[in-house]
Amino acid sequence: MIMAAAAGSAGLWYLSRGSGLVLLMLFSAVVVLGVATRTGSAPSRWPRFAVAELHRTLSLFAVALLLLHVLTAILDPFVTIGWAATVLPFVSPYRTLAIGLGTLAVDLAGAVLVTSLARRRLGQRAWRAVHWLAYLAWPAAFLHALTAGSDLGVWWVALVETGSAVAVAAAVLARLAGRARGGPRPPRPVPGPAPAGTS
Amino acid sequence: MSAGARLRVDPIACDGRGFCLEILPEMISPDDWGYPIIRAAEVPARLAAQASEAVWLCPRLALRLDAPDRSRPRGTPR
Amino acid sequence: MTTAGRTVRSAGQGGRTAGELPRLLPGPWAGPATLASHLARHGPLPAVGRGAEPRRQLIAEVGRAGLTGRGGAAFPTARKLAAVAAAAAATGRTPAVIANGTEGEPASAKDKVLLAQAPHLVLDGAVLAAQLTGARQATVVAHGAVRDIVDGAVAERRRIRYDPVPVRVLTAAGRFVAGEASALVNWAGHRAAVPTAVPPRVSERGLDGRPTLVQNVETLAHLALIARRGAAWFCSLGTPAEPGSMLVTVIGAVRQPGVREIGIGTPVGDVLALAGGPAAPLTALLVGGYSGTWVVPALVATAPFSVAGLRGAGASPGAGLVAALPAGACGLAETARLARYLAAESAGQCGPCLFGLGSIATELAELAAGRRFDLSRLRRWLAQVDGRGGCHHPDGAVRMIRSALDVFPAEIAGHAGGWCSGTRPGAVLPLPPPARR
User: Fold this and answer.
1) What stretch(es) of chain C map to CATH 3.40.50.11540?
2) Going from the N-terminus, what domains does chain B have, and what CATH number goes with each?
3) Which of B12, B15, B16 is nearest residue C390 as measured by Cβ atoms?
């Protein structure tokens, strides 16, 4: 009986950590695709709208997997995290900082998700302002993976984490470089008495 | 659904990103500067799904599907 | 007074309707426009009774007068007043009134002259429009050159609490598209003077989200006179379909360029005569504005200066501009200059306008310089730009350029062969210096 419970708990434990690792890859892919949608990279191989659609589809997958990841962590009887910690960061008695970072990532990504679903009603400007939080959500998720996971010694876990970081960093650098170079179109005029400006 | 609706672009919001050109080439073609020209025809039933997708996906929310016969009549004040 | 580097004289009295004109302008220079001189000439503005019925009746009188907008679109004023009043009643929001004295058209001077010489007539009209729509304030957006005069007139009225609603004055943004209705609403709301997407129309949702009446200052001046003298008087000038008088600016190769007041429907030749007649044989006229239409002078000499009269020539009175191009000037060079100006005046919000007009202007510059150019590509670009902007700025530019292609075929052939028929140096049509960016 105790063995079965222990095995069940171990199962939840592995499910939680496994889903966390896959989530990190998924989330990183979503960020990279989001950047690619904007910079328009790989237009010859794929139409740009397909990149945008993949970004959207993968983010929805990630949300589903995130539910699994959070549920398995909360339901695991061997660690006490508490339901409050699913939305309130830094209230978990177990590894407060590490879990808190994960909660922060969930909160930020949740805001991005909700505003994206309601984009037409919210309008472009509000949606865009919230979407920037994705650049905060990913580091929070990454740091959560580093601190909450204890498998850094395993080589393929380290590979996944390094690869994710490199991919996102490369995408962000490409975006910044594209911005510095200036787009193919002149910037839009900003509100105010002076005509034209940078946006 | 959106069959029979009129597809319109808001030229001020449009940035020429080109998603709609890829999704709906049957109805939208690029001008010489990459901006979409929408044929004034209504959306046929077989393209309804693509039209909705183009509207949803536009990164600038510049596309709109209007119910049929709702064009702004000429000669109305601004 | 001098505006835009030219001396502008007050209205002449020529034409078949001598003695009835001028109505708006004070005629021979009678000193600065004070409230006292204004009242001495026109009498007091009748008070609008309280309640909806007196307003409805006065709007109906304006409808019988057939007053249309003098800003270029010629929309029936009574209908616009009623629409704003109705939108206010339907939404429960207090409407707003904006008097449009921007005069973004660089060669037009009529709004500046009107505000300088008859500011109280415009203010009467603005206040009246506020009363007719239920607005609690009137905003006057005035061209920078006449801002001080308008301020003085408003101060004079405020000192004796002359108006039932307050009037605030803003200086216009000074760009070509700044006079467009939604751009004006944006400017009055302290944002950039660029057009916004329509729908919703400003008459339904404009300044601060309220139903907004945007009316050219000349239209409001006519409104102020109709309230005093009635529809029948207003219709004693002009044509049955387009009654009343209008202000026109005549520039270019005429002996006395300036602003004149004419009865609508005056033949174009008579309009030129009012400005002293041509100073040289003319090759072309640019009618309506810099985004108007080039026409051959002989074809329109007897055409009435009205929407109906000019339709046959593909033109329209527009903002009341007539620019005379003398023989020896190159119509293509002028067109290329105007196209470059209009392209630079794009608000920059819509790709087809911003890039399309730019490409078109560059192509016309090549044509004007006698270098290689592609006429079929130019025509394709004109078709791609027409109607695809957020406002009608690109449409006007396309119209002007298409008319140039029709009116100057000989010049086009010459330039394609590498030579120009122009003999006089320098440009004819005035343009302001390039705007700072």
Assistant:
1) 21-234
2) 6-66 (3.30.70.20)
3) B12
Q: Is A37 within 8 Å of chain B by CB? A: yes
Section C138-149 average pLDDT: 96
For C331-416, CATH number out of 3.40.50.1000, 1.20.810.10, 1.20.1440.230, 1.10.390.10 equals: 1.20.1440.230
Which residues of chain A make contact with C351, given a CB cutoff of 8 A?
A: 185
pTM as predicted: 0.86
Tell me the residue range of the domain where A171 lies. 6-179
Q: How much of chain C exceeds pLDDT 90, in percent?
A: 84
* Residue A188 resides in a domain: no
Q: Do A185 and B61 touch (CB under 8 A)?
A: no
Residues of A within an 8 Å Cβ radius of C? 185-186, 188-193, 195-196
Beta strands, E only, B4-68: 6-9, 28-30, 36-38, 63-66
pLDDT at A183: 55
A174 vs A105, higher pLDDT: A105
Fold exhibited by the domain C21-234: Rossmann fold (3.40.50)
Q: Which of A124, A125, A185, A199 to mutate to test the interface with C (most CBs of C within 10 A)?
A: A185
Report the CATH number that the domain containing residue A48 is assigned in CATH. Answer: 1.20.120
Residue C303 φ/ψ, nearest 5 degrees:
-70, 135
- Taking CA–CA distances from C389, the nearest residue in chain B reads B11
Minimal-distance CA residue of chain A relative to B54 = A49
Q: Given CATH 1.20.120.530, say whether it is the number of domain C245-323.
A: no
CA distance, residue A192 to nearest chain C CA (Å): 5
Which tens digit of pLDDT belongs to each residue from B8-40? 999 999 999 889 999 999 999 999 999 999 987
Touching B: which chains, 3+ CB pairs < 8 A?
A, C
Subunits in contact with chain C (3 or more CB pairs closer than 8 Å):
A, B
Q: What ipTM goes with this model? A: 0.87
Strand boundaries in C253-354, DSSP class E:
258-263, 282-287, 293-295, 321-326
Residues of B in contact with A49 (CB under 8 A): 19-20, 22-23, 54, 57
CB contact under 8 A, A189 and C173: no
Q: Give A144→chain B minimum CA distance, Å.
A: 31
Residue span(s) of chain C under CATH 1.20.1440.230 come to 331-416
In chain C, pLDDT over 70 holds for what percent of residues?
A: 94
Strands B28-30 and B36-38: antiparallel
Q: What are the angstrom distances between the C-alpha of A65 and each of A157, C145, C309?
A: 18, 66, 72
Q: How far is CA A37 from CA A138, B19, C375, in A?
A: 17, 10, 38
pLDDT of residue C180: 94
Question: Residue A166 belongs to what H/E stretch?
Answer: helix A155-181
